[in-house]
Write a structure and sequence with these properties.
Length: 231
């Protein structure tokens, strides 16, 4: 494994962290067939979720393993799907909210009300909903042309802006965002871990998304969440 990681470090510059998956006990080490089965299932799951651009386009295929092994590997995968998001790895987490998870009017299929955020002077108009625990900015939303420069901020704040600048650029490279002059359009529904992260990308600056995102009746996301307001 160390040799494989060293090869990736030399030849691939797009990654900065790795998750190593092992069995819990030495007596239950994964066989080569089981590993290939898991790899195939994970690649398939990542494709279905559409949360990441896959560099590995080679699917090893499903190895012929027994029904008992399939059952054990299914349990193994379920554990992975539960644990990986706690480590910040969300590429297998359900289906990314997209056309398949939206109604005919383009809104998210969810019990959450629709939230809006607008900045008139920048022609920013965005709408979002809470879908499966994620705050999703809907396709068609118009956001700022980029994240504000961090030159005038303290070092700690500058690092936060740099982090969101990288996120903004990733969304552009993945085709989630499309630039048009001084503004940017969401070409696809985009899930975020919090309303504040979504608000940062939409406005290009730090702001409290729990206050900024509001329903058509003026109820902030924070108040709606605290009060259990229904749409």
């Amino acid at each position: 494994m160390s040799t494989r990681l060293k090869e990736h470090a030399k030849k691939k510059d797009w990654w900065d962290k790795v998750a190593v998956i092992t069995s819990q006990a030495e007596s239950s080490q994964l066989t080569k067939s089981q590993v290939r089965y898991l790899e195939s299932r994970l690649i398939q799951k990542a494709k279905e979720a559409s949360r990441a651009q896959l560099d590995n386009v080679t699917d090893p295929g499903f190895e012929l393993i027994s029904e008992a092994e399939r059952s054990n590997m299914s349990a193994f995968l379920n554990e992975l799907y539960s644990l990986l998001p706690t480590m910040g790895i969300d590429i297998f987490r359900g289906s990314a909210p997209s056309e398949q998870n939206t109604n005919s009017d383009g809104k998210g299929s969810t019990e959450s009300p629709e939230f809006f955020l607008s900045v008139a002077r920048q022609n920013i108009t965005a709408n979002a909903s809470l879908v499966d625990g994620e705050f999703v900015v809907m396709a068609g939303s118009i956001s700022a042309g980029g994240v504000a420069r961090s030159d005038s901020h303290a070092q700690s704040t500058a690092k936060v802006y740099e982090k969101y600048q990288r996120l903004f650029e990733e969304l552009l490279s993945e085709g989630v965002l499309e630039t048009n002059g001084e503004s940017t359009r969401f070409a696809k529904n985009a899930p975020f871990g919090s309303p504040s992260t979504a608000a940062f990308i939409v406005t290009g600056r730090a702001c409290n998304g729990r206050k900024e995102w509001k329903t058509k009746d003026g109820v902030s996301f924070g108040d709606w969440e605290a009060r259990g307001v229904e749409p």
